[in-house]
Amino acid sequence: MIKQIIALIGLSILVVLSMSYAQQGMEALVSAHEWISQILTEVFSGGQAGNLARGLIALLSIPILVGLIPTVIYWIVKRSWFPYFMEIVWIVWLIQAGALMVMAR
Predict the structure, then answer these.
(1) d(CA 24, CA 52)
(2) How many structural domains comprise the chain?
(3) Cβ–Cβ < 8 Å for 47, 37
(4) Which residues contact 86 (CB under 8 A, 6 or more apart)?
(5) Cα(102)–Cα(105) distance, integer angstroms
(6) For residue range 9-36, what is the model confidence (pLDDT) as tens digits?
(7) Are 29 and 96 within 8 A, CB to CB?
(8) Ordered alpha helix ranges (H), the chain
(9) Residue 74: which domain range?
(10) Where would you find the membrane-spanning parts of this chain (predicted)?
(11) Measured between alpha carbons, how far is 92 from 39 in angstroms, rounded to an integer?
């Protein structure tokens, strides 16, 4: 428990010190989401079901792609499945969903 608190404090200090870089990363994540969503408007209809499918695919594609990068590198080196794939996907998804909610105001 103490190790987790120390890690949380350390990561918080790191984020505060690198706030401009974190902001650029969030902006890149949101713009990549909007780019994928814009491309998918050509594929899906403009109705409610099409908008739902487009939003779902756009929200899930970036975390999965980000999670696949270390997984592929790990597979090339070790020839086994990367053990933290879903954790990376969840972290990126949470960050992306949080950024999208903040930008939707």
Answers:
(1) 27
(2) 2
(3) no
(4) 67
(5) 6
(6) 999 999 889 988 888 988 998 899 999 9
(7) yes
(8) 2-17, 19-40, 48-78, 85-103
(9) 47-104
(10) 56-77, 84-104
(11) 21
